[in-house]
Design goal:
The protein has 2 domains: 120 residues, Glutaredoxin; 156 residues, 3-Layer(aba) Sandwich (Glutaredoxin). 39% of the residues lie in helices and 19% in strands. It contains 12 helices and 13 strands. The longest helix has 20 residues.
């Protein structure tokens, strides 16, 4: 009987010890692309411990810092965590981020863009401070804007170069465009006002060409949904997928609808949540901008009412 009790206690202690070991950072054995998908879905960042097998501080952090319960709590809550050997599967990653020191720590957003870089040994308390700082940096800058808060970039503002792919995967970049650009934001193929407006623009293609201008349509929807826009409007203009809403943010036209409207869109619009980069439901104001050859805004039409669009005669007059 005593022997059975002792064995039971040993078994329970082993389980307890194993549970203690799992209180630290939960590193996932997945690719960076999969980590991006999870980060977008769960609204998290990505943390990558870039190490080598011969690095003493790397081993010490793995043993002491990454197993700390508080560190694990913060990192697991806010990040998708990866540990990558810089000399094996992480060779390309180390080259991309110019990593020569180990251990190195990459904090990325859900699109793989670098948020913060650190390297060297940190104890648990020090690393906890870094993790919390990065998480707070993002959360403080990601306060969703209501439609009343977005104002759109103004005439005279220069728009940074942006790139995006069309429905065929062809890359469009403003850095390669020498002519004037007419940039039109739409909400998606499900919006009848957007489709009607795109159709109304079809007849001005020769006039745009004569004025050394190109019309570009920006959609928050994925390529397969842009295909539906093309089918419904028969447009020949370039329609770009604004993945991660980067272009809409650059023009300050991105907003989050209120809860009532979001519920309506999610319940009534088929595929609304699945059609875009994340489940936030964010949308662009249906604005139109004219950029000159230097990518400076020379004219704009900005109206929060999605039923009101730029008049064709006004666009042509301003080119």
């Amino acid at each position: 009987m005593t022997k059975k009790i002792i064995l039971s206690l040993c078994f329970l202690l082993a389980i307890f010890a194993n549970a203690q070991d799992k209180k630290g950072i939960s590193f996932q054995k997945i690719s960076l692309e999969t980590a991006k998908q999870i980060a977008k879905k769960e609204n998290k960042l990505i943390f990558i411990d870039v190490y080598t097998t011969w690095c003493g501080p790397c081993k010490l952090m793995k043993k002491k810092t990454f197993t700390d319960a508080k560190v694990g709590e913060i990192l697991n809550k806010n990040f998708v965590n990866l540990a990558i050997d810089a000399e094996k599967e992480g060779v390309a990653l180390a080259k991309e981020f110019n990593i020569v020191n180990f251990p190195s720590f990459l904090f990325l957003d859900a699109n793989g863009k670098l948020v913060q870089y650190d390297f060297g040994y940190y104890n648990a308390e020090q690393f906890l401070t870094i993790g919390m700082s990065v998480a707070n940096k993002i959360s403080n800058s990601a306060v969703p804007k209501t439609i009343d808060m977005v104002k759109g970039k103004m005439v005279g503002d220069k728009i940074p170069d942006f790139s995006a792919k069309d429905h065929l995967g062809n890359m469009f970049s403003t850095s390669n465009e020498k002519e004037k650009l007419v940039v039109v934001f739409i909400r998606g193929q499900w919006c009848p006002y957007c489709n009607k407006y795109i159709e109304s623009l079809q007849n001005i293609s020769p006039e745009l060409q004569a004025k050394n201008a190109k019309l570009v349509i920006i959609s928050p929807e994925k390529p397969e949904f842009i295909e539906k826009t093309l089918e419904k409007t028969k447009t020949s203009y370039t329609v770009l997928y604004d993945e991660g809403y980067k272009i809409a943010e650059a023009f300050d036209v991105l907003y989050t609808p209120n809860a009532k409207i979001l519920d309506l869109y999610n319940s009534k619009v088929e595929g609304f949540a699945e059609s875009r980069s994340d489940n936030s439901g964010r949308l662009p104001v249906s604005a139109t901008f004219i950029l000159d050859e230097n990518k400076i805004i020379s004219w704009r039409h900005f109206n929060p009412d999605y039923k009101e669009r730029a008049a064709i005669e006004d666009i042509l007059k301003q080119l």
